[in-house]
Amino acid sequence: MDFYVTWLLLCSTGSNLRPEYNGLPSIYSLQALQHTQVLLIKKDNLLRLYQQCAKYETIGRLMAELVAHRATEIAMSLASEKPEERYRNLLKKQPDLFQQVPQKFIANFLGMTPERLAVFEGGWPFRSDLNLS
């Protein structure tokens, strides 16, 4: 799970990252919280595009690497950071998110309950003490 606000570049490469999943539907899904335009390209067409132009294959590889890197970042954050750190990091990286996304989704992403997140938002001095510049 991840959040994309304002613009979205999302590639569903999950089925392509592991060879044993080739040909199977992606395990990822997309849930839009606002009006959203989605562009879809079928795998056969994508592979044809890769064959026709090496630059597109490079772009596809880089996108797959970004998805894998982001998934690793999220897993490492959940495994090694305290909830307070995850909250602070998200607030620093995406401060507008807290006005655009319902609290229950943010809490789930941070690995905590909405009630715990409410404590951070109301009871912790993070917002006022955090230098976002």
UniProtKB/TrEMBL annotation:
Protein name (record): Transcriptional regulator, Crp/Fnr family
Organism, as annotated: Spirosoma linguale (strain ATCC 33905 / DSM 74 / LMG 10896 / Claus 1)
